[in-house]
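Task card 7
Instruction: Convert sequence to structure tokens.
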Amino acid sequence: MFRFIRASLAVVLVAAAVAGVYLYAELNRPYGDFPEPLVFEYVRGAPGKQTAAALEELGIVRSRWLFLAARALRPGILLMAGEYRFSAADSPVGILSRFAAGDVLLRQLTIPEGLTRFEVSSLVAEAGYAGEDEFLELTADPTPIQDLVPEAKSLEGFLFPETYSLARTATGEQLLAAMLANFRQAFEAASQGVETDLSLYETLTLASLIEKESGVPSERPLISAVFHNRLRRSMRLQCDPTIIYGLLVEDRYRGAIHASDIEDPHPYNTYVHAGLPPGPIANPGAESLRAALSPADSDYIFFVANTGGAGDHSFSSTLREHNQAVVRLRASRNTP
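Output:
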């Protein structure tokens, strides 16, 4: 009798061992043939059977039961919500590990240089990371940057232009935090070893003017020199983009600068008010930050667009030279 029981137990143990080896092999055996990459979205809190069934239906796992078995063997891990890209065969254990590590698909969002926070908010809304009004409200609050710039009135100027890699589930708050972190790094790098009489906020404001005026990146130091020279001489900056920004803030911009706009006394109008405007008029990139801190060694005090529409400028040290450049520009515009 005991001999029979021992024999039966041995058979059971051997069978269990064989089953365990088989299950281990199946849980770690890659599966999947993807002519084109598949994207699977894991929703946090979704029932395990629902997730497993969807993986099986898409051909990502051989059997839903294998994925459920892998999940049962690691009950304490947290699976991260998001989109996952599958382009090569993987095992149930490997897939579960990717979910646990949050190896989600990242999408790219490019914020070009020189956009206002209004334009940035529109791009963020188009990408689906926040509503336009929601992101505008976030960027209207200067609190996240006031440890660095107590006088900041909003986050205009601090939304650093860059290509951001984001999960589809990223929030407007997370994107904003990345922008501000990149700004801090960029400004610290640009200001290393540089001495200036301007405050950080004044430097950022100047950089935004340079960004909006520079059609050709290589001209940024020269444009910076013009603005620096005018500030030293107490000359008005007469920067057209400041007129536009002030009108945009008050929702009065008509798509072009009219004669009456040049005399409009809003605070950003540098044709009316001397010195820098009260804050940035756009979000400058690293090169404009460097140009604001390190202008070219030049006595230029004027610049005007060149003929040809290439975006470059003629720079002048005297009003006579400047007027001649303006005449050439106007003549080119009137030429059929």
